[in-house]
Design brief:
The chain is an all-alpha fold. It is built from eight helices and no strands. It comes from Lysobacter dokdonensis DS-58.
Length: 196
């Protein structure tokens, strides 16, 4: 995969998996697969949460992804690409598939596609409070816009790769990124005005 920008942070999925561990997992070694699960649980869950905006959905995506990896691990041949990239693509596909399905269901029953994160009444430390503000601002974006922002900025996907994953065009990805960035800035600016 080509990085969107050389300054893009390394993906949380970028975990070097030893060949011996992969060989054991392919051979059906349960302990080896459990190790892979522990290593990739947080990155898959985080990606699914950022794309879908719902913790329960993210847990479901995590389970579906890892079951798919378990069932298809024998198909991974490497060929110059890392295991984490293969697993990440499965996670992205699962999250986007669930997002498309949920959007179809929401359209059928007339619900909008914004997510809501649970809030805690206890005051947060400053860094956590900032993260919570960003999380709430992201939750207020449409799911497709939130997905593009996350895939581009956090995972380092290019617009062409996002377009392929979302079954759209690169210009769709670019416009969602621009629109999402504007809305995110506006939402964060309005919270700063309230706290000033």
């Amino acid at each position: 995969m080509t990085q969107a920008d050389p300054t893009t942070p390394r993906s949380s999925f970028a975990i070097d998996v030893p060949d011996a561990l992969l060989a054991r997992a392919r051979a059906g070694d349960r302990a080896a697969f459990e190790q892979l699960y522990r290593w990739f649980e947080r990155p898959v869950f985080t990606l699914a949460l950022r794309i879908g905006g719902d913790r329960e959905e993210a847990r479901d995506v995590l389970q579906d992804t890892m079951l798919k990896v378990l069932g298809r691990i024998g198909e991974f041949r490497g060929g110059g690409s890392p295991f984490w990239g293969w697993l990440r693509q499965i996670a992205v596909n699962e999250a986007l598939m669930r997002l498309r399905r949920d959007k179809r269901l929401a359209n059928e029953i007339g619900v909008d596609d914004t997510g809501v994160f649970a809030e805690d009444d206890a005051p947060l430390p400053p860094a956590a409070a900032d993260a919570a503000l960003v999380q709430r601002a992201l939750a207020g974006l449409p799911a497709s816009t939130r997905s593009v922002l996350w895939l581009y900025h956090a995972e380092g996907y290019t617009h062409d790769e996002i377009a392929a994953a979302m079954q759209r065009t690169a210009s769709f990805s670019k416009s969602q990124l621009a629109r999402g960035t504007r809305k995110l800035r506006a939402a964060l600016a309005s919270t700063e005005d309230v706290h000033a």
